[in-house]
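Cast an eye over this sequence plus tokens and explain the fold to me:
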Amino acid sequence: MDYQTLIPTPDAIPAPAWFFILLEQILFLLHIIVINAVLGGALLILFRRLFGKDGQQAYALQQPLIKKLPVLIALGINFGVPPLLFLQVVFGHLFYSSSVLMATYWILIIPLLILAYYGLYIHAGKFLNSPRFSKISLAVASLILLYIAFMLVNNNAMMEQPEAWTAYFGSRGGNLLIWSDPAFLPRYLHFIAASVAVGGLFFSVVYRYSKRLEDKGKMIGNGLRVFAIATAFQVVIGFWYLLAIPQDFMLQFMGNNLLATIVLMLGILTGIGALVFGFLGRFNATLIHVLVTLVLMVITRYNLRMMYLSDDLQLSRLQLSPQYGVMILFLAILVVGLIAIAYMLKVGFNKENRRAES
């Protein structure tokens, strides 16, 4: 059957599509930085606890990290809501459809996310009093986060490939996954490698500004080294991902689409630069290169999405039903919310620093 007959008619949008797409990409960038830090941080701490030293000394070194993970996951969840809302304005007819096709797995994300949230709190609170229970809690939370990442990547991939929706007629239980896509596995592994890299960099950031540690230089260097090693794997997986996407898209990233090619090449160069500076232990240079790389890769991610949807969605044809008054009010509330979050984080970190000094 013609898969395009399965695509719902998109709703009218209250402002130009570019406006929502820009907001989605900016807020998604904030969300993905925090979520990568949570997943990567959890995996790295779990690795240290399973294969490294444990006990009072290990807790003293890792305490600044351990206590921040529950806060970060809450922050990451809240940062995930705005980009999801903006995504649904323009791509909602695709995103809702893909979510329904994998509904059995998708609906589990909410209760599992609550369990992961509590798991990180239990890990922090029971580290010394009940080490085994603490490790189990962290392991369960990490596995849940890996599951959620798997489903999010799957949903995004299915949203971008409505031609795969016809498989629903052979499996109507809401358990459709896009296993047939050769780019799915490298896409997922690329996300995991990025999380470990950002997790290592997060360690360096925490140690850099922590006042509780004496040997800060060594700990910052260790975090940068973890970042650099994970980034090296990420570069390899990234090229695998590039080769796995449809050939026409790959060629667009290799010269046929000049803008997409320039953005991707710059992202690769800044990523390699971050890797080199990470191995050299240059904190500021690494951080700057990482931030630039993330911006460029978020743009590349959007470019790839539009390549996949080139036959199924024309942004210029979306019906516009202006509601600018409502949009201005929404944006004002959004800005106030972001300022409030920034203020709460500032107060929280200042309070922690005062405790460290006392």
User: Anything to note?
Assistant: The CA atoms of residues 13 and 320 lie 5 Å apart. The mean pLDDT is 90.
